Amino acid sequence: MKKHVKIILAVVSAVVLLALGVAFFVLRKFRQGKREEELRELLMLEGYTGTYGFDNDGGKNHDLRLFTYASIVSATSNFSSENKLGQGGFGPVYKGKTSEGHDVAVKLLSRQSGQGLLEFKTELVLISKLQHVNLVKLRGFCIHGDDKMIIYDYMPNKSLDFFLFHPSKREELNWQQRFNIIEGTAQGLLYLHKYSRLKIIHRDLKASNILLDENMTPKISDFGLARIFKQNTDEANTERRVGTYGYMAPEYAMQGIFSVKSDVYSFGVLVLEIVSGQKNSSFHEIEGPLNLVEYTWDLWRKDSAIELMDRTMKDSCIVDELQKCIHIGLLCVENHAVDRPDIEEVISMLKNEMTNLPLPKNPAFITRNGVVEETKKSTMPMNLSSNEVTLSEIRGR
Asked: Which CATH fold would you assign to the domain 160-394?
């Protein structure tokens, strides 16, 4: 009798364990399916000139690592102030070290940020799909309640503006390093505009969004404001203008028209800043030029462009290269987008593959008497943010 009871108990126990195992397996599959669906929904981009979806795998091979919140807290020492690297329009950035020993930068989406879920999704999807030596590398992301985080490779030399606009740090940037940063940034833009699977307009190219690795190699970062184009689309129009005033092309700032030439304009401003060591917005005298672009144009017309050179690199400067970069910078900031070179032409100029450069025409800049003719009729207010602030949205009145 006891033997029969033991057999019955053993069978019942086995059935219960089997049932629990099946239930656990089904629940796990359900949660996994739900998580994949949530990730798929998260990583779908809307509002672009072209549709963006997943490959035939349904989005499973998205190559994005989902970090646990506990691992991020541990990596950043609970977001300690000692690990804080800086503060951007997106939110604070912290240095961390993963359990595998990788140094990372954790960008936390501030709840008070003007940028939201769309920008978060855009940056995740774009950087995860892009691979280039001059683009920042994404490690993964983390979502914890209302907190959203993006995890990148840590860049030990911070960003270009940290060196370029610091009175003592900019002395550490010799001409060869600056020229390499100009060329590397151009190569990154060329990949975005032409050679990546997606045609991408960055829309917020500026010194603070150029990160520098241990070898001072430039890495374009911050793709939250980027837009995807169909390969056969040249430009688009939007009422929601985003970017950083001072780097924004006039047709975009005033009319909402953007294209690859909008990025070229931003690149031109960046080149002039790298050559001079001055911010585009650093001119505050009552008389004289309003910004760096206008100042450079004044020097060019006087055949004194060499005066733009940052004096801290006078011993390392190759004058012909510097003058060529000033020339290219002015071509990139021309008023009409159609007159600006594309980034492939810029690289040819930098590599001396194009020797007879066209003379630059009037650049696009705002003067104290108004703006260039094409934008005088705009209803766009002139009291916009300086080029220190990323604009989440600008609208005409």
From this structure: Transferase(Phosphotransferase); domain 1 (1.10.510)
What band does 391 get if pLDDT is binned at 50, 70 and 90?
very low
pLDDT score recorded for residue 306? 94
The residue that leads in pLDDT, 89 or 245, is 245
* pLDDT tens track for 255-293: 888 889 999 999 999 999 999 999 988 776 656 677 899
**Catalytic status, residue 63:** no
* pLDDT at position 353: 84
3-state secondary structure the chain: CHHHHHHHHHHHHHHHHHHHHHHHHHHHHHHHHHHHHHHHHHCCECCCCCCECCCCCCCCCCCCEECCHHHHHHHCCCCCHHHEEEECCCCEEEEEECCCCCEEEEEEECCCCCCCHHHHHHHHHHHHHCCCCCECCEEEEEEECCEEEEEEECCCCCEHHHHHCCCCHHHHCCHHHHHHHHHHHHHHHHHHHHHCCCEEECCCCCHHHEEECCCCCEEECCCCCCEEECCCCCEEECCCEEEECCCCCHHHHHHCEEEHHHHHHHHHHHHHHHHHCCCCCCCCCCCCCCCHHHHHHHHHHCCCHHHHCCHHHCCCCCHHHHHHHHHHHHHHCECCHHHCCCHHHHHHHHCCCCCCCCCCCCECCEECCEECHHHCCCCCCCCCCCCCCEEEEECCC
pTM: predicted TM-score of the whole model, two decimal places: 0.78
- Which residue out of 55, 147, 204, 222 is catalytically annotated? 204
The domains spanning 65-153 and 160-394 adopt the same CATH topology: no
Judged against a pLDDT cut of 50, whether residue 147 lies above it is answered with: yes
What band does 396 get if pLDDT is binned at 50, 70 and 90?
very low
Task: Return the CATH architecture of domain 65-153.
Answer: 2-Layer Sandwich (3.30)
